Amino acid sequence: MYRAIIWLLTMSAWAVCLRWALLLEKLPAATFGEHSVCGPWGCGPPIPVLLACHTFWLVLLGPPAFLAAAQLPSKWVRRLGRLMVAFAAVGLIAVGGWEAATWFREASEWERPYVVHRYFFELVTLVDVPILEVLFLGGGLLLVEQWRLGRPVNPEARLIDDRARSSVEPSAQSPLS
């Protein structure tokens, strides 16, 4: 019975957090200086709406990723992180391909130098598919797995650490003997 109550309270808190994430769209536009995501590459929704959608995806996917990092063995956390990063990479490539096939073909000579801006604009305004959030959470899982195994995240740091450790180790002959 105790576990059922904890589970119910946890799910209720998660649902409330999801609702609060969506309420971010109600922020006044003046909070962000009345700015929007607009330029020669197109115009997007107001910033509070984008913030609400991206936060919703993070709140939706974040707790399961946290539970996976906390409960699964390191091997499975690493596999899940790699899978999430791979899915996000496929999404990034697909968005790039779509923009090359549609927008770039129809863009005028004046607009074509903004192809990179347009690509990032599409990534930021694409809230139907959580590409950026999956990339962020997958990378986070990989970092957590590295930290949990005690490996340095930066391979050069490990090399420096190994060199420092070898210079501190006592020699075979002690000067006192």
Question: What this model shows, in words?
Answer:
By secondary structure, this protein is mainly α. It has one domain (2-163). The chain has 7 helices and 2 strands; from the N terminus they run αββαααααα. It has helices spanning 2-23, 47-71, 74-101, 103-106, 115-125, 131-148, 155-168; strands at 36-39, 42-46. It has a two-stranded antiparallel ribbon. β1 and β2 form a beta hairpin. α3 packs antiparallel against α6. The radius of gyration is 23 Å and the shape is flat. It starts with a helix and ends in a 9-residue tail after the last helix.
Protein structure class: mainly alpha
Segments where pLDDT lies below 50 for 5+ residues?
Answer: none
Coarse shape? flat
Order of helices and strands: HEEHHHHHH
In percent terms, what proportion of residues is strand? 5-15%
Widest sheet, order of strands: 1-2
Q: What are the SSEs and their pairings?
A:
Elements (H helix, E strand, L loop, with lengths): L1 H22 L12 E4 L2 E5 H25 L2 H28 L1 H4 L8 H11 L5 H18 L6 H14 L9
Antiparallel strand pairs: 1-2
Helix pairs in contact: 1-2, 2-6, 3-5, 3-6
Short description:
The chain has one domain. It has 7 helices and 2 strands; from the N terminus they run αββαααααα. It has helices at 2-23, 47-71, 74-101, 103-106, 115-125, 131-148, 155-168; strands at residues 36-39, 42-46.
